[in-house]
Write a structure and sequence with these properties.
Strand order of the largest sheet of chain A: 4-3-2-1-5-8-7-6
Oligomer: heterodimer
CATH superfamily of chain A: Class II aldolase/adducin N-terminal domain
CATH class of one domain in chain B: Mainly Alpha
CATH class of chain A: Alpha Beta
Number of helices of chain B: 27
CATH topology of one domain in chain B: Aldehyde Ferredoxin Oxidoreductase Protein, subunit A, domain 3
Helix content of chain B: 40-55%
Strand content of chain A: 15-25%
Largest sheet of chain B: 6 strands, mixed
Structural class of chain B: alpha+beta
Largest sheet of chain A: 8 strands, mixed
Shape of chain A: globular
CATH topology of chain A: L-fuculose-1-phosphate Aldolase
CATH superfamily of one domain in chain B: Aldehyde Ferredoxin Oxidoreductase Protein, subunit A, domain 3
CATH architecture of one domain in chain B: Orthogonal Bundle
Order of helices and strands of chain A: HEEEEHEHHEHEEHH
Shape of chain B: globular
Strand order of the largest sheet of chain B: 2-1-6-3-4-5
Radius of gyration of chain A: 17 Å
Helix content of chain A: 25-40%
Number of helices of chain A: 7
Radius of gyration of chain B: 23 Å
Structural class of chain A: alpha+beta
Number of strands of chain A: 8
Largest interface: A-B, 23 and 28 residues
Strand content of chain B: 5-15%
Number of strands of chain B: 17
């Protein structure tokens, strides 16, 4: 069973810190994006609120829910994406943090039908395979179901016409995944534009054999 | 004694027969079951009024109530509920009021006022900071509503006093008489006539007490940061710019706007009576009810050789359609005048428009003749005729007397098959959304406790594509589909009872999850969203049983035949009818009611109200499960 090295209050502060960092980097917008953290070893989750400016959350804004979405503590309405978060926690016992961000470049490449390629070591080791989930309306049980079906064994997903989802054992890991996604997407975009359509070199197969045999 | 926040914890009881006023403590166990506003009013009436009596019997009671959020800083928290046994539906009656009156009542220290008995002479009440005074209304009896307000304010000498009053229509017992405060109207189910029957002309209110909020700083912080979300709802900017009538063009595309008593689907006149045209040509100023960031309230100003200078409320969507498209009247200035007439006489625009439409259709079919109308030729598209009929209704003069009965009773009086063209459910005239364009609305009309009501559920919003994940409305519900509508309508009806129990407006759309948060921060009472929903379900069931005792049966859970068997001839809903039966079957099942539409004991037990219900039924000597009730309607 997982154990936490943080108190619940520290966990909540950590959620706010992560949200602020993502906002400052342009990966979540004023109203878009949400972050949750499971209290390790439990079926309860702290999650960001719905409809509130994401760059300046307060401790009181966060909401504690169970995996059925029932509010246990807090007065705000939990993020509308709670069904997706809890669906992930249900099928991934190793995951204690979920971040849904609106990475513009990652999402844009997916809209153009371009998948992320193994162009950096981070792309290979950190991201591995990133499935693209077809569009489903935000906040619905349908979206939660689609994500839950594809979430086994992955660290990140792209939601078509929507954004990205990153997972982690803790918030720092999930935050790193979100940032890596955008870094890789930006690098790939620059390479594609600058190369004028020529093929981009990738990390050689022999150097990514273990990962690719496991995840690709 | 309980420590109250949001609620004042005090209920006033005024007996007009013996001029007795008493103040009672609110009971937390009741508040816990049904909240305030319509919940509290429903429980009070259920426990204290025999639903079988005539609405004008002195033993009928009238409850004015506000919700725990009324008058707080929560957006849209202006609302007041008024409820009674209705002279129009002959069963449950309720109507709701925006503006400023409810806030003033809360500041005067009351969650509710229960009006009992009947005064010998015209009376009005003055409520101020915990005290209630009965005053002589002989001088103002007979006055139209705007003059009533001016006169009372002048008499009491305080311009901040808020007045809710009736006009001549209420005094003359027009069965759809309204209650007016400022230009805001509690229009439906004829509660103004109940006031009139009690010789109660008005309730004037002034309050300087503080509304106590449990955690004001947290509430202020939460609200200020939620505005970007609240104002992102699809209708906010349309309502703000053009009022409720700003949606008419959109409704028209769906085939939703009733034309010629629901017989046509296309009509060019729409473009002259919709909100944008009206605002661009006749706006005097934008207004807003207490605490409202949307401000759908518009005031009009126009000079016209027929009517002189008209200043008053810009027609709402319901007015523009019921006195416009429904009657083929495309004269926008006449609509502004008609809105004013209805509000000054004090009667409902929807019921009057639908009753006039019934009369015109019957006249064109030869079922009503000039002998019935006193020589009047009734025809479509004649604003002069409509104005004339509205004045006759307000004064209950000539043919206006029959029209003042509402289309159900009027059609029974006339007979000759005219009942077929009376568009009502349970006696309440159908509002301005054709249920063949949004079939869930058909089920909503058929099952709403007050009869054909568009507001108790607003299911068409969902059928237009809105989702409410907080209420588990995840999937897209299409407007012509049938499956799942039973669940959807029950869910939305229950939720709307919650909104009206808290004192909130439906046109300031706040996600349900946030409303649960507001309730906690205002009252200090921890009641999560599913518990609030359960309160809404209790209210639905209590009102339902009130109706069953009154003699309303599952046979009344229906629609006018036109919607069930006449396909729309053209427009956005061409070829459609409402397939009500399968939706109704699903609805009863979801509700936990038997095949007769009677809530089962198990359901009531699950809702923790079986004891209250059985105790009341025993005292009335009625067994609703054994069909032993005496049915009088």
């Amino acid at each position: 069973m997982s154990v936490s090295i943080f108190s619940e209050e520290e966990l909540r502060y950590e959620i706010i810190r992560v949200m602020k960092a993502l906002y400052d980097r342009g990966l979540v917008s004023a109203l878009g994006g949400n972050v949750s953290a499971r209290i390790p070893g439990s079926d309860t989750v702290w999650i960001t609120p719905s409809g509130v400016f994401k760059g300046d959350l307060k401790l009181d804004d966060l909401v504690k829910i169970n995996l059925d979405g029932e509010v246990i503590e807090g007065f705000m309405k939990p993020s509308v994406e709670w069904p997706m978060h809890t669906a992930i926690y249900r099928v991934r016992p190793d995951i204690n943090a979920v971040i849904h961000a609106h990475n513009p470049i990652t999402t844009g490449l997916a809209l153009a039908g371009i998948e992320l390629k193994p162009i950096t070591v981070e792309a290979v080791v950190t991201l591995r395979s990133v499935p693209v989930i077809p569009f489903a309306y935000p906040g619905t049980d349908e979206l939660a179901k689609l994500v839950a079906e594809r979430v086994k064994g992955v660290r990140a997903l792209i939601l078509q016409n929507h954004g990205v989802v990153a997972l982690g054992y803790n918030l720092v890991e999930a935050e790193a995944i979100v940032e890596t996604l955008e870094e890789v997407a930006l690098t790939q975009l620059v390479a594609m534009l600058a190369s004028g359509g020529r093929e981009i070199p990738m990390i050689p197969e022999r150097d990514r054999e273990l990962i690719s045999k496991l995840y690709f | 004694m309980a420590e109250w926040y949001g609620y004042t914890g005090r209920i006033a009881r005024v007996n007009l027969s013996d001029s007795r006023v008493s103040i009672e403590d609110a009971k937390m166990e009741y508040i816990d079951l049904v909240l305030g506003g319509i919940g509290l009013a429903s429980l009070i009436l259920f426990m204290e009024v025999d639903p079988r009596i005539d609405a004008f019997d002195p033993s009928n009671k009238l409850v004015f109530s506000v919700g725990p959020l009324t008058g707080t800083m929560v957006p849209g928290s202006s609302r007041t509920t008024i409820a009674s046994r209705s002279p129009l539906t002959l069963g449950w009656g309720e109507s709701h009021l925006g503006g400023f009156w409810g806030t003033e009542l809360k500041k005067a220290g009351f969650d509710a006022i229960i009006i009992e008995g009947k005064a010998d002479t015209p009376t009005y009440l003055y409520v101020e900071d915990g005290r209630i005074e009965l005053r002589d209304a002989s001088r103002i009896w007979g006055l139209k509503t705007s003059n009533v307000e001016k006169s009372i304010i002048s008499e009491l000498g305080d311009p901040e006093i808020k007045v809710a009053c009736i006009g001549p229509a209420g005094e003359r017992l027009v069965r759809y008489a309204s209650i007016i405060s400022g230009e805001r109207v509690a229009g439906r189910t004829g509660l103004g006539a109940v006031m009139g029957s009690k010789k109660l002309k008005a309730i004037a209110v002034r309050g300087l007490l503080q509304i106590r909020i449990r955690w004001p700083d947290k509430l202020r912080s939460m609200i200020s940061r939620l505005y970007p979300s609240i104002m992102s709802f699809p209708t906010s900017q349309i309502l703000s710019s053009y009022g409720t009538n700003g949606e008419m063009e959109s409704f028209y595309q769906y085939g939703d706007v009733p034309i010629r008593n629901f017989t046509l689907g296309e009509w060019d006149g729409i473009h002259k009576i919709e909100g944008q045209y009206m605002v661009e040509n006749y706006l005097k100023r934008h207004r807003a009810c207490f605490g409202c960031p949307v401000g759908c309230w518009k005031e009009a100003r126009v000079e016209d050789p027929r009517y002189g200078l008209i200043e008053g409320r810009m027609p709402e969507y319901e007015s523009a359609a019921s006195l416009g498209s429904l009657l083929l009247n495309s004269d926008p200035v006449s609509l502004i005048y008609m809105e004013k007439l209805c509000n000054e006489y004090g009667f409902d625009v929807i019921s009057s428009g639908v009753t006039i439409a019934w009369a015109i259709e019957c006249f064109t079919k030869g079922l009503i003749t000039v002998e019935d109308t006193g020589g009047l030729q009734l025809r479509w598209g004649d604003p002069e005729l409509i104005v004339n009929l509205l004045e006759m209704i307000g004064e209950r003069r000539g043919f206006g007397y029959i029209l003042g009965e509402g289309c159900r009773l009027a059609s029974r009086i006339i007979g000759r098959g005219s009942e077929k063209y009376a568009m009502h459910v349970k006696g309440l005239e159908v509002p301005m959304h054709d249920p063949r364009a949004f079939k869930g609305m058909g089920l909503q009309y058929a099952t709403s406790n007050r009869g054909a009501c568009h507001l108790q559920g607003l299911v068409m919003r969902i059928e237009q594509g809105e989702r409410m994940p907080d209420l588990k409305i995840y999937r897209r519900f299409y407007r012509f589909e049938i499956e799942g509508k039973g669940w959807l309508v029950a869910t939305m009806q229950d939720w709307h009872h919650v909104i009206e129990s808290l004192g909130l407006c439906k046109f300031v759309q706040i996600p349900p999850g946030h409303i649960a948060g507001f309730y906690l921060l205002v009252t200090g009472i921890e009641k999560r969203l599913p518990e609030l929903q359960k309160c809404g379900e209790r209210i639905s069931n209590i009102q339902r049983i009130f109706n069953i005792i009154a003699g309303v049966t599952s046979g009344d859970d229906t629609l006018p035949d036109r919607f069930l068997s006449e396909p729309v001839v053209e427009g956005g809903a061409k070829g459609e009818i409402v397939e009500l039966k399968p939706m109704l079957k699903e609805y009863y099942k979801v509700r936990g009611w038997d095949e007769r539409g009677i809530p089962t004991r198990e359901k009531l037990d699950d809702l923790s109200i079986l004891g209250i219900i059985e105790s009341r039924l025993d005292s009335l000597e009625i067994d609703i499960w054994g069909y032993k009730q005496s049915i009088r309607s």
